[in-house]
């Protein structure tokens, strides 16, 4: 087996994190976010691991919903806000997909479309994110229009928080108030607002359905989990050391000679680069583990390779294993160095990287 660059996925960690969601939100139903191929972890695999722990799954593209329906015949699958004409609504109904209706025109289209099976809709209100969602008046109009339709099996109400992970709670409170007050005026309808950060920081927003994404994969975007409810990395990105060399003061490493040795040093060259999904913008000093010990990126990340200062790790040799993020090195920490977030790191692992499911 010629294995130089791979990601390991830990099913125990995934289930541990789902159990943490269950503990933090004991009375809400759980819609696990498996869009973007399960945040890069493999949607089918994630759904299989979580099948008995959650109440449904959510995806962002019709193709993702169809793929998932192939392995999840019975489970609720919600197709998040997308473009839906009459024909596409019919297709969603045929595949028993729940759909998010985020504009009044789609609500009207649905009201005038005959479906083979009734469909469950999640009406989305724009409570302040100004991305997708209806205004209060459109939302109320859509609700009244669809509530009486025999083609609509059930209605849910939803919105999405823009700032749930930040220290200022005022925007979250306002968004929560906007949806809940309007929803309550329209009847007794299941409501969904909370993403991971809201589940952790704003438990009052858990309502009927929570929608955890990143916390299932091991990151706490709010950095405020109570002690004892730790999350575990599900994805660990690993690569082999291909070479180790000794350098003298003044020697430089990699493209544009960005890192220069100030004295005697040792550099390990690792089989991962931006074509594998490691961020090219990673600066010198970005942490990497080699045989479990911390070291720092030294020099520009190239397409297939990256270089790490291992001057303090004299036993490192070709064939050793580097961890680029995951167990012992949270992706969020690497993301902070690279001016990005774990979400982006997870979803950017490229096709050529071998996937190993543990
Ligand atoms: C509509 C919606 N709900 C929930 C989530 C889950 O968010 P998180 O991964 O921060 O928990 C997302 C993710 O972007 C989303 O778009």
TrEMBL record:
Name recorded for this polypeptide: Alanine racemase
Active-site residues per Swiss-Prot or TrEMBL entry: 35, 255
The protein's annotated pathway: Amino-acid biosynthesis; D-alanine biosynthesis; D-alanine from L-alanine: step 1/1
Its EC number(s): 5.1.1.1
Cofactor: pyridoxal 5'-phosphate
InterPro entries: Ala_racemase, Ala_racemase/Decarboxylase_C, Ala_racemase_C, Ala_racemase_N, PLP-binding_barrel
Keywords on record: Isomerase, Pyridoxal phosphate
Domain Alanine racemase C-terminal: 234-358
Organism expressing this protein natively: Zhongshania arctica
Gene Ontology terms for molecular function: alanine racemase activity
Stored PANTHER family: ALANINE RACEMASE (PTHR30511), ALANINE RACEMASE, CATABOLIC-RELATED (PTHR30511:SF0)
Catalytic reaction list: L-alanine = D-alanine
Residues bound to substrate: 131, 303
Entry keyword Isomerase: yes
Domain of life: Bacteria
Claim: Plastid is one of the keywords in the record: no
Function (record text): Catalyzes the interconversion of L-alanine and D-alanine. May also act on other amino acids.
Protein family: Belongs to the alanine racemase family.
Modified residue annotations for N6-(pyridoxal phosphate)lysine: 35
């Amino acid at each position: 087996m010629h294995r130089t660059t791979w990601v390991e996925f830990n099913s125990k960690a995934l289930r541990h994190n789902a159990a943490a969601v269950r503990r933090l939100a004991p009375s809400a139903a759980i819609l696990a976010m498996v869009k973007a191929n399960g945040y890069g972890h493999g949607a089918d695999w994630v759904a299989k691991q979580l099948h008995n722990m959650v109440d449904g799954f959510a995806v962002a593209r019709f193709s993702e919903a169809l793929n998932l329906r192939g392995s999840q015949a019975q489970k609720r699958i919600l197709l998040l806000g997308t473009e839906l004409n009459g024909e596409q609504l019919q297709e969603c109904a045929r595949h028993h997909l729940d759909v998010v209706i985020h504009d009044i025109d789609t609500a009207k289209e649905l009201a005038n479309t005959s479906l083979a099976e009734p469909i469950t809709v999640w009406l989305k209100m724009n409570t302040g994110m100004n991305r997708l969602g209806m205004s209060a008046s459109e939302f109320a109009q859509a609700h009244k229009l669809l509530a009486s339709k025999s083609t609509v099996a059930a209605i849910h109400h939803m919105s999405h928080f823009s700032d749930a992970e930040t220290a200022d709670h005022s925007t979250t409170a306002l968004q929560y108030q906007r949806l809940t007050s309007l929803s309550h005026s329209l009847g007794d309808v299941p409501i969904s607002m909370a993403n991971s950060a809201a589940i952790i920081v704003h438990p009052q927003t858990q309502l009927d359905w929570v929608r955890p994404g990143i916390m299932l994969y091991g990151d706490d975007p709010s950095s405020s989990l109570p002690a004892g409810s730790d999350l575990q990395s599900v994805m660990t990105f690993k690569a082999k050391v291909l070479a180790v060399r000794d350098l003298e003061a003044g020697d430089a490493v990699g493209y544009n000679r960005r890192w220069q040795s100030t004295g005697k040093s040792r550099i390990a060259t690792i089989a991962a680069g931006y074509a594998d999904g490691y961020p090219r913008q990673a600066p010198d000093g970005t942490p990497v583990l080699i045989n479990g010990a911390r070291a720092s990126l030294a020099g520009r990340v190239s397409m297939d390779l990256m270089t790490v200062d291992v001057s303090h790790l004299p036993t490192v040799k070709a064939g050793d294993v580097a961890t680029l993020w995951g167990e012992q090195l949270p992706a969020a920490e690497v993301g902070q160095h690279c001016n990005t977030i774990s979400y982006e790191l997870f979803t950017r692992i490229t096709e050529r990287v071998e996937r190993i499911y543990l």
